UniProtKB/TrEMBL annotation, chains A, B:
The lineage of its organism: unclassified sequences, metagenomes, ecological metagenomes. InterPro entries: aa-tRNA-synth_II/BPL/LPL (IPR045864), HisRS-like_core (IPR041715). It comes from marine metagenome. Residues 3-270 form the Class II Histidinyl-tRNA synthetase (HisRS)-like catalytic core domain. This is Class II Histidinyl-tRNA synthetase (HisRS)-like catalytic core domain-containing protein. SUPFAM superfamilies: Class II aaRS and biotin synthetases.
Length: 271, 271
């Protein structure tokens, strides 16, 4: 396990989580004039550790970390200002095997905890990129993702309204929904995606095919995961596969989430 | 185990640890204008929990807590700005059996960790109170304690100098040293204390006799503890027995410390 300090310079945490999340960073002014912040998640601290200790990733650095994080939210049912996160990451490989291994670890954990009514939703940021290119709103990726991220919570109609309010044209919204509403068996979803946005999202679709073949090799029961083109994940730093675990019929949102983040460390080292 | 929030209102933490310690409290200004502080120890947070949940102490509340604390020090060998503390406390009884049980728990822990070259130093704040009354510098308890607390670290000569610099008379310093230099077998120390300051510190000496009889009942090997009239412990909130564990010949200062704090909770509730 890795442990990182509770406090970080405020500037290190900004520009990485997205605008809405950034408002929740616990920003604190210390008496010596420094602007500090409390740990917002365990990913940015990890990327700093890696940036400062490049030798760790020879060949691959795997770690888990269980520590508190702080978010300046209005406290409400299930949401606290201070809570514990548990992260598993693997650094140093571009292979989709890493993503599949993380998903497999989550699967083992859920089964180990005695859950059986769960589903791992999987998507790829490159598919979302392709989708907004197909809808010809490529410069509005963040707004679109932020809206479709709420699909489960507020329903399709409200997402349409929100997109319209963001000046996304009716034609573009129709195209976006033609992608995010794809559903069916794993192969069907990937085939459909290929048909509609294969020209702009082939890389993402290819990556998901790889993930699927590794998940199969790793013995993951294919009833426990599903490709969901509407899965966006809030944070800005994801670059490849993203995933989320939902408990069926529990109405409590996602209980686990994550994804590949390939460029965060480079923001420190310039590489 | 109990867990308490990392952050507390700054005002709650002040006036409890002593002046030198107070400078190390991580004071932070939050954007909404509130002055916050990071947890400095686990005792003041516990006393707040008890003050807000009086029903917990019927009849006795025992808890352990393992969490991070923060102190704005200059980082150096063995001293960090963020570190983990482990506390064991029992709330709700004035019996010296509680103090003896805590000491016994520390003893079991040290043995359990495989240490054998350790010594538990024990004193009582009421003996220190008596000592300064005997030296007729009763209004200078904190300064005197702060100086003799450094005895092990800087030696007797420098402590004398420091006391002289604080305008403690040569006669008073002599009296103070006649108390803090008492050593010998447990009974000898208590008898000597009784002879010199029995009129002003009888209660403290009586409490240590009780602790000793309970330690004996609890089967604690009497070679592992020692009554040390020079043991002061830095923090202001102690009111009765105080103790500290040193590893012999290791030169690393104390590794465990604590004591009875009877008035801290009353500072919240006015009782």
């Amino acid at each position: 396990p890795l442990e990182t300090p509770a406090m970080e310079f405020y500037d290190i945490l900004t520009g990485k989580y997205g605008k809405e999340a950034e408002n929740l960073i616990y920003r604190l002014d210390y008496k010596d004039g420094k602007t500090l912040a409390l740990r917002y998640d365990l990913t940015v601290p990890l990327s700093r550790v890696i940036a400062m200790n490049a030798e760790l990733v020879r060949p691959i650095f795997k770690r888990y970390q269980i520590q508190q994080v702080w978010r300046g939210e209005r406290p409400q049912r299930g949401r606290y200002r201070e809570f514990t996160q548990c992260d598993i990451d693997a650094i140093g490989s571009t292979s989709m095997l890493q993503d599949a291994e993380i998903i497999a670890a989550i699967y083992e954990m859920m089964i180990g905890f005695g859950f059986h009514q769960f589903e791992i939703l999987i998507n790829n940021r490159k598919i979302l990129d392709g989708m907004v290119k197909y809808a010809e709103v490529g410069d509005r990726l963040k707004e679109v993702c932020r809206s479709i991220d709420k699909l489960e919570k507020i329903g399709a109609e409200k997402v349409r309204q929100e997109l319209a309010k963001s000046d996304i044209s009716a034609r573009a919204i129709k195209k976006i929904f033609s992608v995010i509403e794809i559903e069916g068996h794993h192969e069907t979803v990937l085939d459909e995606l290929e048909k509609i946005i294969g020209d702009v999202a082939q890389e993402g679709i290819g990556e998901l095919r790889e993930v699927r073949s590794y998940l199969s090799d790793l013995g993951i029961n294919e009833g426990y995961y599903r490709f969901d083109p509407a899965l966006a994940r809030g944070l800005d730093y994801y670059t490849g596969p993203v995933f989320e675990v939902v408990i069926k019929d529990a109405g409590i949102g996602s209980v686990v989430g994550g994804g590949r983040w390939d460029t965060l460390i480079g923001q420190y080292t310039g590489k």
